[in-house]
Structure formats: structure tokens, C-alpha cells
Recover the amino acids of this structure.
């Protein structure tokens, strides 16, 4: 059965086009979820795409977190459903406290769109399970507020508990610290993406959904999208996703 | 609104002659509101009053042209039930006054032209020109314009995939911001801006109307600048890309669901323009209810409402039965929407109000009792029958005739500043403000949103795949101002030739041309002559290359105190690649391949980047252009690519052959060992910019077939050597080399040799250094080896 994956559409979302394309390439059925709706239409995973939700004039993601659909997404996450936020979607999840940390303005204070190398930290999570081997993945970033920040204690805990899923890599394959050439925005400890304590909600700044076909320069992002799709299928079949600790609640989603 | 001494029409920018013409059109004295409406619609920007007679000479026909000149954007069919819409437009004067908002609203305006036709915007290209990069004001303008283009394009989710960034002292007081937008239409989506069907509703949707951009078309776009002019700042519009994103989605939904008869965007001259132009195209008129127009603030004067250039607004013509559905769509996208008038049989645009502002039209669209008529103007008088001038044209006296073919380009092969080594000259060229890597700028633009970008900015034409097909659209902008300064005919023709060549060398067939003509004050005969010559060059080149002109924009009065810009014909071309997998890029792909020079050099160094660097006499020896040869060359390269004979290809343009080769080396991460026959001047051979030349990388076993095909097309080829190694080495052979050159006093040595990594370093650091951005971000940052996917 084709996995149904919801794509949350805020006014101002724009990488929804990329997300729809990527889910189709990965063999899933994309289902667009309007921001005013609390009906998740029976999807078994959720992708919050990039863009500028509600214009992001105040601070990225800060308005979107109060939208009706985010109440439903929070309940879905609480029930153990896999949720992936990309770029603006990551900012929305961070504002909603569904993943730890915050995204600050890029260190260079300019929007940055370039290809980065992304090093996956673990290969057994709902978002990395299809990657196979741990190697740098090439995909674009495109954001103005992508500098990952949390206090040292939070960062230590994240690292200890396996909460860091992806880091930026330098050309030689080493982790790109805030001042390194491979780090596009000054993110602390080179962190490009994290997940919540339960392990079923993740966010990252780079765009795996734009790097799913060789003709576009890279298909390294497809492994991440496929991981989400496989996790969706598992969640649909069993009500839980391996690699997470959240207890599945009967009739979980709103 | 007026002062004691100056009559109102002159305050509004109308001449006495124009006032007489208005009296004739109305057969009476115009009132103040009518004068304001005429002043914006008869501005150079809206009426093309100086350029219209010239533009009529452009070729506009093409078998696939679905909509062309006179529409909001040109539309060309590309098969598979799809069509491409594209147009380029200037936002020069607003950007000079307020760079961020000027550039941002430039992007917004051209996007609306494209989606008003029913096309989803898929790409933006921006062609930017500024003065001295070391000057603090230039740096302020560059920073603001780049942030503005990015701030708007990134937010609306349309990738910025290409463009230009050029520095020349002539733009010091008057920068150029030209933006091209491309959209993709599906069958049945094409929508024209024609107010058909008397009785239909005139619906305004999008942002509310405010005081911003009052008289932008007449004040900003149609007059030269005074020294410091803060009084013009309120004329600059303010952009809201979030509102634009909603406007895109709402508009495309309205069209897809066939809820509207027609749509026009509101840009220059605001509601006045949108109502009179749509009425004129439909052969109809309109009753406009001023009271019904949603406003951002109270206390707006009628003339302010009618000519405000508040952004992110559209006018739709809607059958009454569809109104409820239209309102529902706009409400869902959180856009204000209102019925502001009715289409009428009588071809007048009539502006009505009531004393208490309660609405001047009843439910059937009839004026209510007590409605006051504020203005009544025949729609054609404001649009298709606006005033036209036949301006005086005179070639400048100082213009020298081009030298006879074969005459030596004297003293231009010396490099007094940079020394003797051609490798050092090449390094200096690659690091110069106009030839160095544009990455620090284009990295601030989202260039891959929508997941179509096969080739983004920075390496020749942009390539965008068309989802659901094997096809790709290829797009570029090019403008040769340096040569236009010497010979405006040649500069314009070269611009078309280069833009088309940049499309052809990917393997794509150029489909059509959009143009942005940036020239000086048309009331100066010399400036008008440059415009006339430019249009003639544009027309000649388009005819020779078989390209229809599908639209564009004219920006005149590009002058600041003490300086006029170099005439700048900015050409945008969109091409079609039937199979994106056959695309050829400009980076060397493998070691041991043959490097073949296609075409022959000619002309001298005038107008070249070398001349800019060396300070040679710019009026001697511009490049020569044979349009018939150019057409054959482009046919040849497309055929060679279609047959799979070409690994990579780059045209010879800015910086000449040496720079073209260096770029192929830098992008391919490998060197080349070459031998070049040079004529009288090694500098012409290495750095001359004569057109109709290509460098091709060819697999050795394909070299005979490649040569034979060239012969068949009557194209000259010359094997230069092969790819490989860490260095670019060009041995100079022939009469211009070594001893012969030394005897003539040339200080160019007999070989150019440079390490590719050194060339790359110069190329990558040139722009941030020129703009003082060095240290802001490490330009080596993303230089991950092997990141490029060739082919």
C-alpha cells in the first residue's frame, strides 16, 4: 500500500512543490493539509515544508505554530507519528517546542543558498533508516535564519541521547564547526538537524526534498525522504515506528 | 497639488504641447483628476511615446508565438500542451532612490505580469549594473538591490537562476535593475487582459490601496535625476512578497477554475492603467466606483487612489454569476477583494463617487442618485491612442567610423599597468569586478526552490527542467553596453547574438526575445539616436537569427547630473531543450579530450574587458559581427550537441578566449595544454571579444565528425590541444608570437601559463574584494571538490 504523507501548507509555504515532487519520487502519496484544518486526513507521516509561513516578518515560524493545523500535528506527534520539518518547517517545529533548540539569523547576516555536505549521525532513526551507509550527503541549503542554537547543557544532552541527526561537514569530511567553511550559517557544533527526545519528530535546515533526482545535481536527499516514507508505512501498519520511544496511543491523532 | 507660479499640468510632468493634445482628445479643458490620469498614462514609462515608432520595426511573428507584444508578457508554445511566458522589465529609478524596495518591487511587478497571463512563475533572472564598486554609494546600492531581489524572490518561492552584475563608471549616478521573469502555462490557462462583456464586474483584489508610489511612472521613471532628491522617495513603492505569494496562488486558482474573463496586474499608474488598458483592449469602457476601492488609510484624495502604485494588486473582469466564487477564493487566500466597477459599451473610463463615500454604483452597476462624476476619459486616449512623438535623432559628432577590416589595432596589446606576463593578465582579468565569480551575490538568492533547477546561476545560461516531460527551458540575459557606447547598433546586435549563443551552446533552440532598452533622455537628439540605432541592431539580429520579439520594456531618461549611462540593451532569451539529458555545460569533463576552437577572431579590443583593465583607447577597433555567420554557428553547435559530439562548450565573450578557457578549467577542476595561432596582436588573440566563437571539448574519436559537421556548415575549426594537468598552458604561435611581437614593442610573452588553482583563487575572491565584502564570508566556504555534476 502506498504510504500517505501529509504536507502542511501555510500561506507562504513554497517548498511544498519540492516536497510533493520528492514524495512522489519516493513512491508515497502526498496529501496537502491546509493550515486552517485540524483534519489530518488519515496520513501516517507529516512533512512541514520550507518557505516563509505567514511571511515570517516577525520571526521565522513564530506565527505558524499557532495555526489550527499545528494543534493537530502536535497531537499526531504525541501519538508517536513521524513528523519531519524542513527549513521553515524546522523553524516552526522549534518555535512549537516539538524539537529542542532555536534557529537564529545566519552568522553572515545574509540569506545563503548553496550546496552543503550533510553528515548523518545515526542510521537507525525514522529519518535516516534508508541511508544505508554513513557518508556525506550533498544537498542545498536556502535560508536566512538557520543558525542552530541551544545552551551548552541542552547540546550536551542532545549529543548524549542521540538527538543530533545531521551535522554540516567540511570538504575533508570532518564536522564543520561554526567558523568552518562547510558550515553555512554558524550553527553550534555543526548541527544541521535534530530530533525530539522520543525520536519521532525531527527537523533540519538543508533541503533533502530538493535533492532527489540526479538531474537536479544530487539525489542524496532521497534516502531521508524514503526513510520518512518507510516510517509512515510502518506507522500505518503497526501504530508505532521503530527507533522511537513514544508509546503509541490508541486513536492517537485528532 | 500646485503652486502659484507653475501650472498644474507641468507639476504633473506634462508639457504644454501635451496639454493641448489632451484638450483636443477631450474637446474640453481637463479637470485636475483627469490631468493626473493623463500624466501617468502619457508618461514615457506607460505610453512609450518616444519609442513606439521605433518598436514597430521589430519582428514579432513566430509560428509558436501565442501572445506577443502588447500583452502583459510574451507567450510561446513548447509542446506537450505547455507554453512559456516571459518578460523583462526595468526598475532603475526606484532602485536608485531606495535600493531594497526598488529592486524588490521590480521582482514583484514582473512576476505579476507573468502570472496575470495564467503562468506559474518558475524563474527570475536579474541584470544589475552599477558604478565604481569601490565607491561607498555603489556598495550601498549593490547591497540593497541584492537584498531586495533576494528578499522578494526567496519569499515568494521563485528561484533566481541567472542574470548579470556589471560595473561601469557610466552607471555611477543611475544604476540599472532589470528583472526577467519566466512562467509555465498549462493548456487552457492563457488569460488576456481585455475587458470583454459589458455588464461584467470589475474586481480589484490583493492589497489595499495606499499612498505609496504616487506618480512613480511619471515622476521616477520618466525624468532624469537631480543631484540629491529625497523628495522622490515617497514615489517608491513598498513590496510585500507574502501578499504576492498569496496573489499568485489566488490568481492561478481563479484562472484554473475559469472564474474570470480576464486579469491584469496593477503596476505603473495603478488603477488608472489597469482600467483604461483592459477597456481599450476590449473595445469597451468602465464605470469605476471610487468609494468601493479598499484603502490602507483614510483621507486619500481621488487622484491618489486612481494613480497609487501600491503593490500586490490585480484587476479581474468577472461575470456577475461568478462573483461569489471569486470572493470565496480571495477570502480563503486572505486577500481583500471588492467590486469596483462595471464594464460598459460606451468606451469611456468614468470615475464616480458619492459625497458620503457610500458607493456610487447600485447592485446592477448603475450610478446611484447623487453620484458625482469625477472624470470621464475615452479609454483609447489613455492607452493605444496616447500621444506619440517623433523625436529628433542625431549621431554624435565625436563618433569615429569603425576602422577598415584588417587594419591593425594599434598599441592595444601593451599592458602598461599589469606588466608583461599574459598569465598575470589573465589572473587579473579573472579577478576583475566584471569577470570574477558572482557567487557572493547569487548565494543570497534561492536558486533551486520548486525543484527544477538543472543549472543555476554563475555558469552561462540557466537550465530548468519541465516536470512531467523530458524537456527543459534554458534562459539567459545579456547586454553589451561597452560596445553600445562606441556603436549602439553593434552593441544591440551583439547582445542578441550573445544571448542566443548562450542558449544554443547548451543544445537548446532559442524561442524568442524579450528586451529592456535602457537609454538616455530621448529629447536629446544624440540619446535618441542611440536608442534608434539600438532598436535597429535588435531588429537586424532578431531577423538574422529567426527570433520573434515577444515583449519588453523601454527605460529612458537614465541620466544623472554630468553623466548619461552607456546605452544598455538588455536582452532576455528563453530556449527549449527537447531532451534535458542531452544538455551540455561549460566545464571541462575529462582529461585527454580535444579542445577545439570554433570560429575565427576579428576586430580589435575596443569595448573589451581587457581594454577596461589596460586603459587602451576604446574607440579603436570594436569587434566585428557577421550575423549570417552567427546564425550558421548556432545551428552548427545545436546540431553537434544533438549528435552527442560535444562534451562541454563555452562561448568566447567577456575577457576573450583566454577567460573562456580559464573558466572551463576552473569549473572542470582540470587544466589544458594548448597552442594558439595569433595574428598581429597576441592580446587580440587571447583577450579580444569578437563574437561567433566557441570553445568545445570533444572526445578524440569524435573530432573528425565534429570537424566535418563544421565544414558542412561553413564554420572554421581549429584544434588547440587537449585537456588535463593542473595548469592552463597556451603556447602562442604564428606571426604575432615571440620575436615578431617583440619587434613591434609588444610586451606579451610567447606563452600563457597559469596554475588552475591560482586562477580559481583570483576568480573567487575578485568580487568580494572589489565590494569590500572580503571577510564577511569565506568565499572558499562551499568549494567542495567534485560537487559539480557535469552534463
Amino acid at each position: 500500500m502506498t504510504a500517505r504523507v501529509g504536507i502542511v501548507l501555510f500561506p507562504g509555504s513554497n517548498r511544498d512543490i519540492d516536497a510533493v515532487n520528492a514524495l512522489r519520487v519516493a513512491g508515497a502519496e502526498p496529501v496537502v493539509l491546509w493550515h486552517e484544518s485540524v483534519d489530518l486526513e488519515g496520513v501516517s507521516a507529516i512533512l512541514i515544508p520550507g518557505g516563509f509561513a505567514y511571511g515570517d516578518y516577525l520571526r521565522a515560524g513564530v506565527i505558524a505554530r499557532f495555526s489550527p493545523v499545528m494543534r493537530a500535528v502536535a497531537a499526531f506527534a504525541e501519538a508517536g507519528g513521524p513528523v519531519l520539518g524542513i527549513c521553515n518547517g524546522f523553524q516552526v517545529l522549534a518555535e512549537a517546542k516539538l524539537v529542542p533548540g532555536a534557529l537564529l539569523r545566519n552568522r553572515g547576516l545574509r540569506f545563503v543558498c548553496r550546496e552543503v555536505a550533510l553528515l548523518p549521525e545515526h542510521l537507525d532513526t525514522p529519518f535516516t533508516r534508508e541511508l544505508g551507509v554513513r557518508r556525506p550527503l550533498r544537498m542545498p541549503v536556502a535560508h536566512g535564519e538557520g543558525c542552530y542554537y541551544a545552551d551548552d547543557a541542552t547540546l550536551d544532552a542532545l549529543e548524549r541521547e542521540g538527538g543530533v541527526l545531521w551535522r554540516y561537514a567540511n570538504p575533508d569530511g570532518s564536522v564543520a564547526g561554526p567558523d568552518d567553511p562547510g558550515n553555512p550559517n554558524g550553527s553550534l557544533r555543526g548541527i544541521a538537524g535534530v530530533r525530539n527526545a522520543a525520536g519521532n519528530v525531527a527537523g533540519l535546515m538543508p533541503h533533502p526534498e530538493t535533492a532527489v533526482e540526479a538531474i537536479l545535481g544530487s539525489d542524496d536527499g532521497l534516502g531521508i525522504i524514503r526513510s520518512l516514507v518507510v516510517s509512515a508505512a510502518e506507522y500505518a501498519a503497526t501504530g508505532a515506528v521503530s527507533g522511537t520511544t513514544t508509546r503509541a496511543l490508541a486513536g492517537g491523532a485528532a | 497639488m500646485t503652486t502659484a507660479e507653475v501650472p498644474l499640468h507641468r507639476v504633473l510632468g506634462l508639457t504644454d504641447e501635451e496639454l493641448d493634445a489632451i484638450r483636443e482628445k477631450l474637446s474640453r479643458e481637463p479637470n485636475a483628476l483627469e490631468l493626473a490620469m493623463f500624466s501617468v498614462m502619457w508618461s514615457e514609462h506607460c505610453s512609450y511615446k518616444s519609442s513606439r515608432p521605433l518598436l514597430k520595426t521589430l519582428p514579432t511573428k513566430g509560428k509558436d508565438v501565442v501572445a506577443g507584444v502588447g500583452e502583459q508578457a510574451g507567450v510561446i508554445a513548447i509542446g506537450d500542451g505547455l507554453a512559456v511566458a516571459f518578460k523583462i522589465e526595468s526598475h532603475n529609478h526606484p532602485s536608485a532612490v531606495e535600493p531594497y524596495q526598488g529592486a524588490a518591487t521590480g521582482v514583484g511587478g514582473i512576476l505579476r505580469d507573468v502570472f496575470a497571463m495564467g503562468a506559474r512563475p518558475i524563474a527570475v533572472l536579474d541584470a544589475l549594473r552599477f558604478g565604481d564598486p569601490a565607491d561607498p554609494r555603489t556598495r550601498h546600492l549593490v547591497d540593497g538591490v541584492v537584498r531586495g531581489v533576494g528578499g522578494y524572490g526567496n519569499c515568494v518561492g521563485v528561484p533566481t537562476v541567472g542574470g548579470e552584475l556589471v560595473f561601469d563608471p557610466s552607471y555611477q549616478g543611475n544604476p540599472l535593475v532589470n528583472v526577467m521573469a519566466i512562467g509555465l502555462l498549462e493548456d487552457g490557462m492563457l488569460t488576456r487582459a481585455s475587458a470583454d462583456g459589458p455588464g461584467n464586474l470589475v474586481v480589484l483584489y490583493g492589497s489595499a490601496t495606499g499612498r505609496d508610489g504616487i506618480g512613480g511612472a511619471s515622476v521616477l521613471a520618466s525624468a532624469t535625476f537631480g543631484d540629491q532628491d529625497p523628495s522622490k522617495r515617497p514615489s517608491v513603492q513598498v513590496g510585500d512578497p507574502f501578499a504576492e505569494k498569496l496573489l499568485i496562488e489566488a490568481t492561478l486558482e481563479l484562472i484554473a477554475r475559469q472564474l474570470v474573463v480576464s486579469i491584469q496586474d496593477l503596476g505603473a499608474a495603478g488603477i488608472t492603467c489597469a482600467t483604461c488598458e483592459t477597456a481599450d483592449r476590449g473595445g469597451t469602457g468602465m464605470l469605476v466606483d471610487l468609494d468601493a476601492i479598499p484603502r490602507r488609510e483614510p483621507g486619500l484624495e481621488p487622484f491618489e487612489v486612481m494613480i497609487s502604485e501600491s503593490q500586490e494588486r490585480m484587476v479581474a473582469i468577472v461575470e456577475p454569476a461568478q462573483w461569489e466564487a471569486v470572493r470565496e477564493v480571495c477570502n480563503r487566500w486572505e486577500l481583500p477583494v471588492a467590486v469596483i466597477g462595471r464594464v460598459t459599451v460606451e468606451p469611456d473610463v468614468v470615475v464616480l463617487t458619492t459625497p458620503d463615500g457610500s458607493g456610487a454604483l447600485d447592485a446592477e452597476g448603475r450610478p446611484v442618485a447623487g453620484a458625482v462624476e469625477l472624470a470621464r476619459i475615452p479609454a483609447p486616449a489613455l492607452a493605444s491612442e496616447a500621444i506619440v512623438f517623433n523625436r529628433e535623432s542625431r549621431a554624435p559628432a565625436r563618433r569615429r567610423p569603425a576602422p577598415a577590416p584588417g587594419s591593425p589595432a594599434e598599441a592595444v596589446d601593451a599592458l602598461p599597468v599589469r606588466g608583461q606576463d599574459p598569465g598575470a593578465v589573465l589572473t587579473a582579468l579573472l579577478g576583475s569586478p566584471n569577470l570574477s565569480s558572482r557567487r557572493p551575490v547569487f548565494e543570497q538568492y534561492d536558486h533551486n526552490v520548486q525543484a527544477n533547477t538543472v543549472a543555476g546561476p554563475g555558469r552561462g545560461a540557466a537550465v530548468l527542467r519541465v516536470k512531467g516531460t523530458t524537456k527543459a527551458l534554458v534562459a539567459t540575459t545579456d547586454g553589451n553596453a561597452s560596445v553600445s557606447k562606441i556603436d549602439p547598433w553593434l552593441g544591440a546586435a551583439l547582445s542578441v547574438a550573445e544571448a542566443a549563443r548562450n542558449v544554443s551552446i547548451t543544445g537548446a533552440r532559442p524561442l524568442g526575445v524579450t528586451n529592456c532598452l535602457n537609454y538616455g533622455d530621448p529629447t536629446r537628439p544624440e540619446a535618441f539616436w542611440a536608442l534608434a540605432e539600438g532598436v535597429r541592431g535588435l531588429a537586424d539580429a532578431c531577423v538574422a537569427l529567426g527570433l520573434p520579439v515577444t515583449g519588453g520594456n523601454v527605460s529612458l531618461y537614465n541620466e544623472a547630473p554630468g553623466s548619461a549611462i552607456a546605452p544598455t540593451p538588455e536582452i532576455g532569451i528563453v530556449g527549449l531543450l527537447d531532451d534535458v539529458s542531452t544538455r551540455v555545460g561549460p566545464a571541462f569533463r575529462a582529461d585527454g579530450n580535444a579542445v577545439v576552437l570554433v570560429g575565427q577572431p576579428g576586430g580589435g579590443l575596443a569595448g573589451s574587458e581587457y581594454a577596461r583593465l589596460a586603459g587602451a583607447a576604446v574607440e579603436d577597433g570594436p569587434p566585428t559581427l557577421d550575423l549570417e555567420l552567427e546564425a550558421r554557428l548556432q545551428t552548427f553547435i545545436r546540431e553537434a550537441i544533438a549528435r552527442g559530439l560535444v562534451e562541454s562548450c563555452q562561448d568566447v565573450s567577456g575577457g576573450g578566449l583566454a577567460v573562456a578557457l580559464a573558466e572551463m578549467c576552473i569549473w572542470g577542476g582540470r587544466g589544458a595544454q594548448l597552442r594558439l595561432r595569433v595574428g598581429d596582436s597576441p592580446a587580440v588573440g587571447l583577450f579580444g571579444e569578437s563574437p561567433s566563437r566557441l570553445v568545445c571539448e570533444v572526445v578524440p574519436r569524435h573530432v573528425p565528425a565534429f570537424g566535418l559537421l563544421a565544414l558542412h556548415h561553413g564554420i572554421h575549426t581549429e584544434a588547440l590541444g587537449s585537456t588535463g594537468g593542473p595548469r592552463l598552458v597556451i603556447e602562442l604561435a604564428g606571426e604575432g608570437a615571440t620575436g615578431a611581437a617583440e619587434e613591434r614593442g609588444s610586451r606579451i610573452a610567447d606563452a600563457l601559463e597559469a596554475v588552475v588553482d591560482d586562477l580559481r583563487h583570483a576568480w573567487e575572491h575578485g568580487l568580494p574584494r572589489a565590494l569590500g565584502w572580503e571577510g564577511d564570508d569565506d568565499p572558499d566556504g562551499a568549494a567542495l571538490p567534485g560537487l559539480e555534476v557535469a552534463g
Residues 521 and 557 of chain B are 4 Å apart (CA to CA).
